[in-house]
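S.,

Sequence below, as promised.
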Amino acid sequence: MFRSEYADVPPVDLPIHDAVLGRAAEFGGTPALIDGADGTTLTYDQVDRFHRRVAAALAEAGLRKGDVLALHSPNTVAFPIAFYAATRAGASVTTVHPLATAEEFAGQLRDARARWIVTVSPLLDTARRAAKLAGGVQEIFVCDSAPGHRSLTDMLASAAPDPEVAVDPAEDVAALPYSSGTTGVPKGVMLTHRQIATNLAQLEPALGAGPGDRILAVLPFFHIYGLTALMNAPLRAGATVVVLPRFDLEQFLAAVQNHRITGLYVAPPIVLALAKHPLVAAYDLSSLKYVVSAAAPLDARLAAACSRRLGLPPVGQAYGMTELSPGTHVVPLDAMADAPPGTVGKLIAGTEMRVVALDDPGKDLGPDETGEILIRGPQVMKGYLGRPDATAAMIDQDGWLHTGDVGRVDADGWLFVVDRVKELIKYKGYQVAPAELEALLLTHPGIADAAVVGALDDDGNEVPHAHVVRRSPAEGPTGEEVMTYVAERVAPYKRVRRVTFTDAVPRAASGKILRRELRARP
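The prediction came back faster than expected:
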């Protein structure tokens, strides 16, 4: 068993809004959130006051403890207000990908039993259609403004009393993001107030930020990585978060330059742009002190090229998953220059790890032996919503979460993730479940069977690659038609980007698709 070098941290038994904003009065007039596009600024005093007023308005509207609110928005300075207001009013927040189709959104609404939606006006049509398909949605609010819908700005004028909600941090679910786990279709990951808040405390010794630090939030808040690293953690510490709605390289570089950003938390495609794109040379990025990459594997050579170009310590990596609130490993900021290339870091405080043999899960392996990574700690999820069997398959009776990732630990405690047991595809950090795409492909009248695996494109990104069996080879769909069929029915990041036609999908006797065999094909 591998244990963290850091001292254990006690469980943080606070609601997440108090765990993050408990020091808002101390930080007072310090800018908490800045819109990186138009400069709109909210101080800590304003974030604290505004989220309380919105919470009161939500309670006045009828939201009660145990309700689920769907937060359907790109990054805006209003996103944290909506999130903390909902949890203060007693709701769990299920975060929704802003590019989700109405059908995908409706599926999440139904599964989560969400009764409330907060969205933005450009996404209102999708939200309305999703609400109609799902049923049970009581009201749709908007962060900005739209005729016929109450906005967060309107709600700031509420004279209703602050809601008095008794939160049990150990049991009550604060966030309900959706993840495919090690396999299958997306499932609601129940993360309690204690699990998320304690994970922030676990990460702090390695990634401590504070007043004066300026963090650029371009990765999405709806993703647990963005929610933790770009929203909860910096706001808990008194840092300033500069918010961008999406990644546009020119806008991103301008924000670093103009807002004197000190720290970047990114995914590998952004590291690639920083390392190679000619635009980078046109901007002053001298305020940067560090870059951390997570959400997908980062090639060590690419990390080195990025750090050389920016004149910074090597790009540090972090590791975790939605089911782990999400962090378990990170390269500490004060150890970036000394970390071996390619490592995803060391265990954070209060976390235990085992590496077990792939052919014998009961056999523990030692340093420099390769096996599946198991994690135990206070950040392990409560479970999958409504799926006890999937929860039991993920977390064993001794509390070990089986990540499905394959790795090794060197003699100094650095973890290297080398492969995945699980079938999940990571497209630019976003999770794509092969089973979901396969089920969709099989609805095409010209497709008899299909399997989807990850394949690397020319930029080194993992993309969905469909292996398709036509019902009639002479009359079946073309590869372009297959890709279009999927693209019209899923969010852009889930699109099939490569198609190979085959006579049969290789399967085991149990019917399980032999994905490794497909990946090995040229």
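The first strand starts at residue 2 and ends at 3.

Coffee later?
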